[in-house]
Amino acid sequence: MANIFIISAPSGSGKSTLVNEVRRSVPGLEFSISYTTRKPRGSERNGCEYFFISRKEFEAMIRRGEFLEYARVFETDYYGTARRFLEKAEKDSSDLLLDIDVQGAEQIKAKLPDAVSIFILPPNRGELEQRLRKRSQDAEEVIQRRLETASREIENYEKYDYILVNDRLEDSVEALKAILLSERLRRSGRADANLSARAEMFRLDRIRERLRPILESFGEAAASGK
Q1: Strand order in the sheet with 4-8
Q2: pTM of the full predicted structure?
């Protein structure tokens, strides 16, 4: 049985960069590329960042039961994880890494409760806004919508097994690697004390105090109407 790792984060938190770095350095990971009905942005290519398909094609896949999970985001576009990636991971004796939003994560955990879930947070709301603007991919309206969505998504952090604050990329990559490898070894009955200790630092109950100012930065923005 493949280990399933769920990674979720607000848009702009650096999740994709983290995932790409970890995929290069952790062997035996099958990565699920999501399907979406939205249009490609910037240099995105079909089959790399996403599989870009029409709404008609997506809804046909829903009817055929081809998704492990799917959701409609911003009430406009569908996103979903194809079941075939889990089947391939199990066939290849690999683990499955899912880069999905909080809606998808909830669906996966309901179906596969042993899945390990990891939530990535930005250092604060101001840093998240700066990162979104630096990408220069979205109009102002879209940026504001992403910030509002981030505030709602962050409220789900307590549903996750591990929390990473992505303030320094190098540290976050090492932390994520420690979580993946320690869980893999633990579940195979070959625990590594050093890796386990490193991973445990990012358990919710261990990192809760560090999260307080981050959560407050989003709450203050909401209170001020920004």
Answers
A1: 29-32, 95-99, 4-8, 116-121, 162-165
A2: 0.90
Instruction: Tell me the per-residue pLDDT of 44-75, one tens digit each, with 9 for 90 and over.
Output: 889 888 999 999 999 999 999 999 999 887 67
Largest Cα separation within the chain, whole Å, is: 52
Q: Where are the domains of the chain?
A: 4-31+95-224
What phi and psi values does residue 14 have, to the nearest 5 degrees? 90, 15
Domain 4-31+95-224 fold is Rossmann fold (3.40.50)
Choose among 117, 187, 192: nearest CA to 157: 117
What is the C-alpha to C-alpha distance for residues 118 and 166, in angstroms, rounded to an integer?
Answer: 12
In terms of Cβ atoms closer than 10 Å to its own Cβ (0-12, 13-18, 19+), residue 120 is buried
